[in-house]
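User: My advisor asked me to double-check a structure prediction for Phosphotransferase system PTS sorbose-specific IIC subunit before group meeting. I don't want to rely on an old file, so could you generate it fresh from this sequence?
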Amino acid sequence: MHVTLSVWQALLIAIWVALIESRILGFATLTMRFSPLMTGMMVGFIMGDIKQAMIVTAAIQLVYMGFVAPGGALPAEPSIGAAIAVPVAILGHMSPQGAIAIAVPVALLGSYLYQFRFFLNTFALKSMDRFAAAGNARGLGFSIMVIPACISFALFIPLIFIALYFGAPVISSVVSNIGHGTIIHVLNSVGGGLAALGIAIIMQVIGKKTLLPFFFLAYFMSVAFAKLDINMTIYAVFGAIFAIIYVMLTQRNTDKG
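Assistant: Sure, here is a fresh prediction for Phosphotransferase system PTS sorbose-specific IIC subunit from the sequence you gave:
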């Protein structure tokens, strides 16, 4: 287990975040920006502890399950939150619930950083207008794709690197020193509440009352079968079977009607 982040580890994570936030790969990076799971896996790969990284990131994902992004705007940046909280949790041996309490405020600050990126992009608009007026397709493509990407990398890489290399070890050291005291208990309680809030949001997004029984069925099955050590593959099979039965029954009622 790493006691601290190396320069290369912090730099690679920062580059990954900049890649996502630049949206240079289009829809792929846009999806990864909305979800912390891929960022958590990459952090785990870089730090050599994918298992613990995914355990922590899965808890963080619960908070953002019901997030929607009208026009691409998010009230928080989950990928930035995961990029900071997962290393802190791994270094400081924090619980997933405690990591959530760190990820949420960091993700909120990340949203302001993303908006600041939009402000910086406005400086590229002058060249875009000039190239468009001249009918220069190559120059216009450069202004649309390359310049905003360069701005994103120049903005996110230094800031995320500093936060990781200098901030994450300090936070994790403090967490390790205070052990299981009051602060850790508060962080775990707050983190657990935020995860519950995320689940409540996704239930609201699902919306249909006819589908909610399946949600509660899955939850209580996981509670009742916890001691049987059933893996996610088996639960996925159960889900597929229930889905097939539901479709068959609803189709039969439709045919009768």
